[in-house]
Amino acid sequence: MNKTELVEAIAKQTGLTKAASEKAVKAFTDVVTKELKKKGKVQLVGFGTFETAKRAARTGKNPQTGAAIKIPAATVPKFKAGKALKDTVNGNKK
């Protein structure tokens, strides 16, 4: 599902217009992005948590040449699914 399909699905389920649904999706992604940029987290109980993690510097390989390259340390976004979401995806929802 891409962004357009998500907006259409939200509009259909909520009765909002596509324009209002698109604004809501954009607002959600903007708020999550800003919070993660501040090294914060966004927790949606039952769904999951958006947060950041530190990735240490490491040595990798250039796939074309096989030469060793240094990959710098970075802060990366991550998502941890909540129990209710995991259960639903695995068909364990009652």
Give a brief description.
This protein has 94 residues and is an alpha+beta fold.
SSE layout and pairing:
Elements: H1 3-14, H2 18-37, E1 42-44, E2 48-55, E3 58-61, E4 68-71, E5 74-81, H3 83-89
Please tell me about this protein's structure:
This protein has 94 residues and is α+β, with helices and mostly antiparallel strands. It has a single domain, classed as Irregular (HU Protein, Chain A), CATH 4.10.520.10. The chain is built from three helices and five strands. The protein has helices spanning 3-14, 18-37, 83-89; strands spanning 42-44, 48-55, 58-61, 68-71, 74-81. The strands form two sheets. Strands 1-2-5 form a three-stranded antiparallel beta sheet. A hairpin with a 3-residue loop joins strand 1 (42-44) and strand 2. The chain starts with a helix and ends in a 5-residue tail after the last helix. The model has no long low-confidence stretch (mean pLDDT 94).
Whole-number total of structural domains = 1
Query: Spatial order of the strands in the main sheet?
Result: 1-2-5
User: In whole angstroms, how far apart are the ends?
Assistant: 26 Å
Radius of gyration: 18 Å
Per the principal axes of the C-alpha atoms, what is the gross shape? elongated
- The CATH level-2 architecture is identified as Irregular
Secondary structure tally, helices:
3
N to C succession of SSEs: HHEEEEEH
Mean pLDDT level: 94
User: What is the class in the CATH system?
Assistant: Few Secondary Structures
Number of β-strand runs: 5
pLDDT below 50 for ≥5 consecutive residues: which ranges? none
Main sheet characteristics: 3 strands, antiparallel
Helix content: 40-55%
Share in β-strands: 25-35%
Helix and strand composition category: alpha+beta
At the fold tier of CATH, the topology name is HU Protein, Chain A
Looking at CATH, the homologous superfamily is IHF-like DNA-binding proteins
Family: Belongs to the bacterial histone-like protein family.
InterPro entries: Hist_DNA-bd, Histone-like_DNA-bd_CS, IHF-like_DNA-bd_dom_sf
Pfam family, one: Bac_DNA_binding
GO molecular function, one term: structural constituent of chromatin
